[in-house]
Write a structure and sequence with these properties.
binds zinc ion; two-stranded antiparallel sheet; alpha+beta; 18% helix
């Protein structure tokens, strides 16, 4: 998976992140794509700030190209050198996102050295999810 490459040298020097794009199908959220770090994002050892407007731009493009089915469904970031457990800032940021994402629930992914951490968020509440690994990596 592409997100894994951000845990390898040289990318693992700083955190990386992006948004998840997909669609809502009844009770399911299908993730079809993720954006990757862009030039104007701020990447630090222990921090990733998704400042580049290109992420939102991609979501808007997919929204119109798909006839209003594919959109922002969540975000991902890495914890290189650390566990994938979310920080207090992560949880706070995610709760904020769920408050603004009125389209539906949001998926939050962290990739750390010890694996993945995933949560589903709706209206400020977060539920940790277990991940089923894909067959074809
Ligand atoms: Zn984090």
């Amino acid at each position: 998976m592409r997100i894994d490459s951000y845990l390898r040298i040289p990318e693992r020097a700083t955190e990386a992140g992006g948004i998840l794009i997909g669609c809502y199908r009844g009770p399911h959220i299908e993730i079809t794509e993720c954006s990757e770090p862009l030039r104007r994002d701020r990447r630090a050892r222990l921090r990733f700030d998704r400042d580049d407007p290109g992420h939102q731009g991609l979501a808007s493009r997919r929204w119109s190209e798909s006839g209003r089915t594919h959109t922002f469904v969540g975000e991902w970031h890495t914890h290189p050198g650390f566990s994938s457990t979310p920080s207090t800032i992560d949880l706070k940021t995610w709760r904020e996102i769920t408050r603004h994402n009125i389209a539906g629930s949001s998926v939050f992914l962290i990739r750390g050295d010890d694996g993945w951490w995933a949560a589903l968020g709706t209206a400020r509440s977060l539920t940790q999810m277990s991940l089923v690994p894909p067959d074809d990596e």
